[in-house]
Amino acid sequence: MKYTNLLLEQIGAIAILTINRPKALNALNSDTLSELSTAIDELGMNSSVKVVVLTGSGEKAFVAGADISQMKDFNSLEGRRFAQLGQATFRKLELMPQPVIAAVNGFALGGGCELAMACDLRIASDNAKFGQPEVTLGITAGFGGTQRLPRLVGTGIASELLFTGDIIDANEAYRIGLVNRVYPLNALKEEALKLANHIAGRAPAAVQLSKSAIQRGGNMDLDSAQAYEAEVFGLTCSTQDQKEGCTAFLEKRKPIFEGR
Ligand code: DAK
Asked: What is the pLDDT of residues 10-54, one digit of tens each?
């Protein structure tokens, strides 16, 4: 599939998906969200892709938010359609089989911060900036920010960010647990690929089922979530990779996972 607002490349088992509207600091308009939705479907079906890295084009922005120039003229029906498209796309990203690493290479504001939060984990460049500035525009966060931010950093800190609209730098994002690691900008892509390849070396079904247990179980009560975890564990016991992983341990050698 050919995309206008996205770049998609594959290096070995890693897909790199880049939001590519650098003139608008990669802001998300509806066309970009639709393409993102299609790309997630395409990648989810591609079993040669083990991990996805999501980033923004250029050196200034990951994604500077939803596209304000498009949102400005929305009537309520168009606004609702936009919200539904964004929410469905971000949820699809969160639930796609493969882990997704956000490599945040600059501004991640509003919908950009929400996009990063819909990824499984986030690493950032030292020039990255995070925030939910919607209240400065007279709107609320609409792509899951009021829900995912408190889950990631706690209600108090999330409330401060959502009520003030203040922007924080990468070190502060690291301190509050919004990002896992911070790197110099010129090292970010290499570090993202290193982490992605590290994950890709593990048993693919076990990684994907771990993701499923984290994402689906996180919204269940503990008993239901543990029951789901038990089902998922049971499923791994039917894979060839489980036999190989356990046998390799007992034989004191490195496992060779074939994704079966
Ligand atoms: N949308 C559209 N264009 C944007 C943009 C955005 N979010 N951010 C930047 N741009 C454009 C600028 O207009 C400018 O275009 P030209 O003037 O060159 O044509 C170009 O990108 C470069 O930006 P600047 O000239 O402003 O660059 P600076 O370095 O001076 O400043 C900045 C960078 C990131 C601090 C600044 O651009 C900025 O403050 N941008 C807006 C950030 C922001 O407020 N983001 C949050 C957007 S609101 C909902 C669904 C979703 C949402 C809400 C509700 N529901 C459906 C309920 C989400 C809302 C948001 O994301």
From this structure: 999 999 999 999 999 999 999 999 999 999 999 999 999 999 999
pLDDT tens profile 196-216: 999 999 999 999 999 999 999
Domain containing 209 equals 204-250
Residues 195 and 237 occupy one common structural domain: no
Tell me: do 226 and 112 sit in the same domain. no
Q: Are residues 194 and 210 in the same domain?
A: no
Q: In the numeric block, which tokens belong to residue 84?
A: 């539904």
Q: Measuring from atom 17 of ligand 1, which residue has the nearest CA?
A: 24
Pocket (CB within 6 angstroms of ligand 1): 24-25, 27, 64-69, 79, 82-83, 86, 107, 109-111, 133-134, 137, 139, 141-143
Asked if residue 260 is part of any domain, the answer here is: no
- CATH code for position 151: 3.90.226.10
Q: What is the 3-state secondary structure (H, E, C) of 1-13?
A: CCCCCEEEEEECC
Catalytic: 231?
Answer: no
Domain with residue 242: its CATH number is 1.10.12.10
